[in-house]
Amino acid sequence: MDRLTAGPGAGIIAPMESSRLWLTFPAVLITRPIIYGLGKDFALVTNIRQASVTTDLGIVSLELTGERAEIKRAVAWLEELGVKVEPVEINTIEG
User: Fold this and answer.
1) 66 with 91: CB under 8 angstroms?
2) Which terminal residue of the chain, N or C, has fewer Cβ atoms less than 10 Å from its own Cβ?
3) C-alpha to C-alpha distance for 21 and 38, rounded to whole angstroms
4) pTM of the model
5) Rounded to whole angstroms, how far apart are CA atoms 93 and 62?
6) CB of 64 within 8 A of CB of 44?
7) CA–CA separation, 57 vs 22, rounded Å?
8) pLDDT per residue as tens digits for the range 18-59
9) Confidence band of 83 (pLDDT split at 50, 70, 90)
10) What is the Cα–Cα distance from 87 to 20, expressed in whole angstroms?
11) C-alpha to C-alpha distance for 37 and 61, rounded to whole angstroms
12) What pLDDT sits at residue 13?
């Protein structure tokens, strides 16, 4: 999705992008509100597409929408926390 939206600068137009990611959370991070932090601390919209959480492991398919640089910054933050981040492979049936 390539929408255009007003950026934080004076009349600057910045392209918006969407990235679908698989996030794998180790047991020690499962109870932390990490996805909440993505929406609060980064200029991103989060959309949980699928999730499976047990006491030992959390796997989430997450869509992030925002400026490319902000998505990259958020992914780096996730990885620093110990979350494994991988792109979702879009299959040809889904589109």
Assistant:
1) no
2) C
3) 13
4) 0.78
5) 19
6) yes
7) 13
8) 999 999 999 999 999 999 999 999 999 999 999 999 999 999
9) very high
10) 6
11) 16
12) 60
Q: Which residue carries 């390539």 as its tokens?
A: 2
Residue at token pair 């989430």:
60
Instruction: Output the CA–CA distances (angstroms, integers) from residue 12 to 7, 9, 37, in the order listed.
Output: 5, 5, 26
Topology (CATH level 3) of domain 3-87? Alpha-Beta Plaits (3.30.70)
Cα-Cα-Cα-Cα dihedral sign, residues 49, 92, 69, 83: positive
Whole-angstrom distance, CA of residue 7 vs CA of residue 21: 24
Q: Around Cβ 21, how many Cβ atoms within 10 Å?
A: 20
* Residue (of 90, 88, 44) closest to 69 by Cα position: 44
Amino acid (1-letter code) at residue 83 = V
